Amino acid sequence: FLWNEMMQDKFQPVLLELFNDFKKQYPKSNFSTHLQSNAKQIEDFNKKKNEDLNQKQKIIADYGKINSFAQLLNQFGDKTVFIDVWATWCWPCKAEFKYSKDLEQFLNAKGIEMLFISTDKDEVDEQWKTMIKYYNLKGWHIRANKVLLQDLMDKFWDGKGYAIPRYILVSGGKVINANTLKPSDKEQLYSQLTTELKK
């Protein structure tokens, strides 16, 4: 249980307590060595809770009142926006964040805005905001309410559920590509976005 939870970047302080107990009980275990870096990540994550978002981490004002994808896009006018749909519980989503810096450089050079849409529930609001800081996710952020999430599911999935991460390219309020490549595809993604915007 401990191995699984820590390896999936679950940052609950209780995992740190369990890990320390485990080390005391099994001081010679190889698992302790493997999990030490994960324990450090949990410590670092929980330190971020008390920090403020930086100027490049922007949460959309009154995000809880945005009830449709169209209403959300109105916030960006005619701009081009690359959207990352994710959640704090989604390990593959978080694995992609290590490529954010390269993606950010590409988007900045092209004048493209970055928007992160979280599908998390109300009860993990603090966890969501801390994760933005921990992963240094620069760009705009919104945590979708139930109505907005349903609208996203209707537009991009079958209306009954959703699979994330999902990456969407929008320009001038219109969806250009509803399912682009992912940040870890790097040059292939950048080429895809460049081509899409030339059409």
From TrEMBL:
GO CC annotation: cell envelope
Recorded GO MF terms: isomerase activity; oxidoreductase activity
SUPFAM superfamilies named in the record: Thioredoxin-like
Record keyword Membrane present: no
Keywords for the protein's UniProt record, in alphabetical order: Cytochrome c-type biogenesis, Disulfide bond, Isomerase, Redox-active center
Organism whose genome encodes this protein: Pedobacter nyackensis
Localization per record: Cell envelope
Domain named Thioredoxin: residues: 36-199
Protein name as annotated: Thiol-disulfide isomerase or thioredoxin
